Task: structure prediction
Amino acid sequence: MKILTINTHSWMEEKAQEKLELLAQAILKERFDIICLQEVNQLLTSSPAKDLPNYCQTIGTPTIHEDNYALQLIKLLLAQGETYYWSWVYNHIGYGRFQEGVAVLSKAPLDSQAVLVSQTDDERDYHTRRVLLARTAFEGKTVAVASVHLSWWNKGFEEEWEKLEKSLSALDCPLLLMGDFNNPTDEAGYSLIVNSRLQLKDSHKAAKDIYGSATIQKEIDGWQNNQEALKVDHIFLSPEWRIEKSAVVFDGEQSPSISDHCGLACEAYLDEAVEEQ
Result:
């Protein structure tokens, strides 16, 4: 399975349309099986979309607007003959003018749900966080994928992780957990994840072939006054997965920068002992 995650920063980026097209080009080239996106937004004031190709709706999600970043990506891919199923889950109002959430794209249909992990459920409060948890199929087997955009350590992360871990513990299939965790590698929040009962593996430590080390460079939104290159975007996999490659992408070196975050790509294989669910 080929996997990609990136916090896109969506329409907040300069030259956002150009960067969206670069993302589509990379997906067309690599043909990822699963893609997780964060900070996927749409204007509060834009019109409802009339056409939602291959959209897998999640209960409680607001109306998809015509400028929804994930929808526009889906349409670019479809125009080039590449079909993805997709879901979007709403978190909160961003920058006073966007409905912001997380998305999953998959080559197979999705059975998706929103998991509220924050203490608050108020769209006007940026602390409101939902995880998009979806089941899909890969090589005849059921797998679960979760796209996350969690809070910072001591600003809600601990409570969010406790709720999410409980939800993920109930799964009966292989898991892919990825996104923007806002917790750098080897620091306290990261340690909670890798030492949890889920027995998750970090793609960037377990892979045979690794490229890159950081997904944010110095100061960005949410990391004001930061002066370090940090890896806060992660792909975690359950024990059934064998991880071959893990690479920082859209880093401005090996591939163009399209966001204030770099992305993370991974290639992994299911252990042959995993039976069809």
The radius of gyration is 17 Å. The chain has one domain: 2-270. The longest strand covers residues 34-43. The longest helix spans residues 16-30.
